[in-house]
Amino acid sequence: MFFGGLLHGALWIRNHLEFGIAILGQQKETSGIAALSLLGIIVLSSLRVVRRLAYEVFFIVQWVPLFIQYLGLYSLFHHSMLSYVAFFVTICYHTIYASPWIFPPLAFYGLDILLRMFRHRIKDAVIIPIGSQMTLVSHSP
Fold first, then answer.
1. How many helical (H) and strand (E) elements, i.e. helices and strands, does the chain have?
2. Cβ neighbours, 10 Å, residue 119
3. How many alpha carbons lie under 13 Å from residue 98 in its C-beta half-sphere?
């Protein structure tokens, strides 16, 4: 997806430069550049070498919005990272033809999150009181 978007954007920019057309200005062009930039940030910050050498960059791009949500500063995004949500929004502003290609993967992602939530959140457990101040919680056999 990244290389396809990069090729699409590079050919489009080359075409505009060749004919002397402004690259930024209209909504379609501006949102396309924004979407390509966000996708580039997501992909480049996810590379293993970046995670190893500059983990803080990966952490900020991928996980900080999740912690901001838990602090209660915004409640719109449940289990999504802000960069991914911004990417999908800018793609929808870039072209009206994006909806059929964006919503099915988002639905599959939502289903994956829901199934993981049930797998990790709902477990059988045995609760054993130990004295008056302590309780032992363990998995049921």
1. 7, 2
2. 9
3. 17
- Residue 57 and residue 113: Cα distance in Å, rounded? 24
List the domain range (segments joined by +) for residue 89.
Answer: 2-139
Of 1-5, 53-57, 60-64, 97-101, minimum mean pLDDT range: 60-64
Question: What's the chain's average pLDDT?
Answer: 79
Residue 34 — φ and ψ, nearest 5°?
-65, -45
Task: Give me the count of residues in the chain.
Answer: 141
Q: How many domains does the chain have?
A: 1
Pairwise CA distance, residues 42 & 33, whole Å: 14
Q: Which positions ≥6 away from 12 have C-beta within 8 Å? A: 32
Per-residue CA distances from 74 to 22, 63, 89, 112 (Å) = 36, 14, 17, 23
